[in-house]
Amino acid sequence: MGSLISIKCPFQSFISSGSYNSLLPHRLRVVRDVFAGVKQALNESQYKNVTIIGHSLGGALALISSLYLPTFFPNAHYRLVTYGMLRVGNKALAKYLDNSLIDITRITNR
């Protein structure tokens, strides 16, 4: 996908150290790839709605990606849908997400 985009996570303090460390090897690659795909789609189309979907670990990575995207593409509307997502945050992250403009749907099995 071309050159690497390295982004420091401004939300690291919201994510528990265990989850953050286990996601670290995947986080930058996934965020880079999602960032590149969203950038290409927004540049090549008239679309302004971005939906990010993930299952389990992919859901956690989708959530982390959804934290970055509005910073780089503020004119888009974001929706996050996760299935069986791992818990990756604390109360501060939950409060941040509750107050964000990201439309979040989390599906779990009881």
Give the key terms.
alpha/beta; 110 residues; single chain; 17% strand; disordered N terminus
Number of strands: 3
Helix content: 40-55%
Gyration radius, rounded: 14 Å
Query: Which structural category do the helix and sheet elements fall into?
Result: alpha/beta
Average pLDDT for all residues: 76
Strand content: 15-25%
Q: What gap, in angstroms, lies between the N and C termini?
A: 39 Å
Tally of alpha and pi helices: 3
Q: What's the SSE pattern?
A: HEHEHE
What is the strand arrangement across the widest sheet?
Answer: 1-2-3
Shape: globular
What's the number of structural domains? 1
Instruction: Report on the biggest sheet.
Output: 3 strands, parallel
- Parts with pLDDT < 50 across at least 5 consecutive residues: 1-17
Structure description:
Strand 2 (77-83), helix 3 and strand 3 (103-107) form a beta-alpha-beta unit. Helix content is 48%, strand content 17%. It is an alpha/beta fold and 110 residues long. It has helices spanning 17-44, 57-72, 91-99, and strands at 49-55, 77-83, 103-107. The protein has a three-stranded parallel beta sheet with strand order 1-2-3, with helices on one face. The chain has three helices and three strands. The radius of gyration is 14 Å and the shape is globular. The protein has one domain (15-107). The longest helix has 28 residues, at 17-44.
In short:
The chain has 110 residues and is of the alpha/beta class. It has one domain (15-107).
